[in-house]
Design brief:
The complex is a heterodimer.
Chain A: H1 2-7, H2 10-36, H3 56-64, H4 67-98, H5 104-113, H6 123-132, H7 139-143, H8 149-159, H9 164-172, H10 177-188, H11 190-206, H12 209-214, H13 223-233, H14 238-258, H15 260-272
Helix pairs in contact in A: 2-14, 3-14, 4-8, 4-11, 9-10, 11-15, 13-14
Chain B: H1 11-44, E1 47-48, E2 56-57, H2 61-68, H3 70-104, H4 108-122, H5 125-135, H6 141-148, H7 160-188, H8 192-200, H9 205-216, H10 218-233, H11 237-243, H12 254-263, H13 268-299
Antiparallel strand pairs in B: 1-2
Helix pairs in contact in B: 1-13, 3-7, 3-10, 4-7, 5-11, 7-10, 7-11, 10-13, 12-13
The chains are: A mainly alpha, B mainly alpha.
């Protein structure tokens, strides 16, 4: 301990202070959120003795404010979006990487270019299409458009690691296309599927503007939309709002705690491999 | 199909057909939801459409209106200001933290710090904003703390510039962890020998950071800036929940006024014209960024 302390330069100490401050800045608002959700405080601050573990706010919110329905909606939408995105992206990633499609690089480039477009640019026509298809207030509206170029890019970069020899061997053995894709290729790119699933799950779970414009029916609200409404309607009931925020936060957080490595690996890979 | 002596479906063609089948679902989704919609946006920007009566072609009228619209000008200014404030802040903080953590804290403490810093990224924007809006209240945590030192805290969300700052703080708070992860992977790729050689030559940590780390991660910086700029243009959740664009027009952004025009005023044509402006703006910034980076590359 002494040895290292002598070595530390002022810059190092300054850096450590900076890291410590930033860690606190990241954690404290969230700790505040959880603690506040356990109080009935009428003001934005609370004393430690205000905290009680009776979860009164959670009970209120789950029973009275359609929150149970919102949790169900969010879960269904997020799970379906993961399945759909992984399926579509894995198929396309395999096709782009391993099949001799004419002009595929051009098609791929155009596809990637769509990632640059802010979602609000296409918001209005997307809404009009969904409305035309009578998909307003349905899960389809929230799930189908979630698949995009990002997943294809991620899957394709992983498909590079699948040896061509293996696929050819399977073809020579007379395996069907269907068999090769599901039984040979997919198991090999499982890590990518996990990363993409996490990514899609979190972004679908947290997405706000799209559910906001496509759902008008209260029973179809997802958690962020329900929370937004709650925060507007019960402006002064801080404990209740924080309970809503905590519920919204909890699922991605638990997922993160369990699958931290895959979370981080997915982001690092998805970005650096470009 | 196999009538002729040489089958129409040679092995290669068959593989190509399979390939097309593989990419078809993704291509269909992306074409309909990302590409066709852009052309629709351009088309609707030339119409007046309130969803009750059929869309009426009005030529460039919407664009004329945009240039006289004070809300648009405010939103444009704010969006530019917002990009100028948050993008450098996010890049500097995340790169600084990543470099420091990779060099001095590659241990469990450092790992824990990184894990914690990533958490704000996975919280929903609405939940994060709900928390921060209570923290920013006139009698909220920040002002209570300031009160302990006998400083009368301002009404954070009540005045234009401060409210704008609040939006920036929440956004930077939420995003730094994400860019930190990207940078951390990049910083670890910087060669150790270079650092050791520089240390032997008597370079200070700051010098090594500036002359070795920063140039080495330039491709990553380019990507981080691109991602950060796109994100900044899309800021919506925080503005919607924290300030509703106010007070006045001080935190309106392009993304927010598109939503307002379309889903509050039901002016689909006008909203589409605003969306076209946003797209043009993103492309312009991208072009500038490309030129800037290429020029710098040439100089080195």
């Amino acid at each position: 301990m002494k040895r290292t302390r002598q070595k530390r330069s002022p810059v190092t100490i300054l850096g450590m202070v900076f890291v410590a401050v930033f860690v606190l800045l990241c954690a404290l608002p969230l700790i505040y959120m959880v603690l506040m959700s356990l109080t009935q405080s009428e003001s934005p601050y609370f004393r430690l003795r205000d905290i009680s573990l009776d979860f009164a706010n959670y009970k209120t919110i789950l029973i009275r404010n359609n929150y149970t329905q919102a949790i169900v909606n969010s879960s269904i939408v997020a799970v379906l979006a993961c399945l759909w995105t992984c399926f579509v992206s894995a198929l396309a990633g395999y096709g782009f990487e391993k099949k001799p499609i004419p002009h595929k690089e051009l098609v791929y480039k155009i596809m990637l270019a769509t990632m640059m477009i802010p979602s609000q640019v296409t918001l209005v026509p997307l809404f009009l299409i969904i409305r035309e298809m009578n998909w307003l207030n349905t899960y389809s509206a929230l799930v189908i458009p979630m698949a995009g170029a990002f997943g294809v890019m991620m899957m394709r970069s992983f498909m590079k690691s699948v040896p061509d020899v293996l696929i050819e061997a399977a073809q020579i053995d007379g395996c069907s296309e269907f068999f090769i894709f599901f039984k040979v290729v997919l198991p090999l790119v499982k890590p990518a599927t996990v990363s993409l699933t996490i990514f899609t799950f979190v972004s679908t779970w947290n997405s706000f503007i799209w559910p906001l414009v496509t759902t008008t029916d209260r029973t179809r609200y997802t958690l962020p939309v329900a929370l937004s409404l709650l925060a507007t309607n019960f402006e002064k009931n801080y404990g209740l709002i924080m309970a809503g925020a905590t519920i919204t936060f909890l699922v991605p957080f638990i997922l993160y705690c369990i699958l931290q490595k895959q979370f981080v690996a997915g982001i690092a890979l998805g970005s650096v491999k470009e | 199909m196999n009538e002729g002596k040489r089958p129409f479906l040679t092995r290669n063609r068959r593989q190509a057909l399979y390939g097309v089948a593989y990419i078809l679902p993704a291509c269909a989704v992306i074409t309909v939801f990302c590409i066709v919609t852009i052309f629709m946006t351009v088309y609707y920007s030339l119409t007046e459409y309130n969803m009750l009566t059929p869309a009426q072609f009005v030529g460039l009228k919407n664009y004329m209106k945009i240039f006289q619209d004070k809300t648009f000008r405010a939103a444009l200014e704010n969006t530019v200001k917002y990009v100028i404030v948050t993008v450098p802040a996010q890049v500097c903080i995340s790169l600084g933290l990543a470099a420091f953590l990779a060099e001095k804290m590659q241990n469990r403490t450092g790992g824990f710090a990184r894990s914690v810093m990533f958490v704000p990224y996975i919280i929903s924007g609405i939940a994060a904003t709900a928390v921060w809006s209570i923290i920013f209240k006139p009698d909220g945590v920040i002002n209570t703390l300031l009160g302990q030192f006998d400083i009368k805290g301002p009404n954070w969300l009540g005045s234009g510039n401060l409210a704008f700052l609040c939006v920036c703080i929440v956004a930077v708070w939420k995003n730094v962890g994400y860019f930190l992860v990207i940078y951390y992977a990049g910083v670890q790729g910087v060669s150790k020998e270079q650092h050791e050689a520089a240390t032997c030559d008597g370079a200070s940590p700051m010098q090594r950071f500036w002359y070795i780390t920063v140039p080495s991660v330039k491709p990553i910086t380019y990507m981080v800036i691109t991602l950060s700029v796109i994100q900044s243009f899309q800021i919506f959740d925080v503005v919607y929940q924290l300030t509703h664009g106010g007070p006045g027009t001080s935190t309106l952004t392009l993304a927010y006024i598109i939503y307002q025009a379309a889903f509050k005023d039901w002016k689909m044509g006008y909203a589409s014209a605003l969306a076209v402006m946003l797209l043009a703006f993103v492309l312009l910034v991208n072009l500038i960024q490309d030129l800037f980076f290429k020029e710098k590359e040439g100089k080195r």
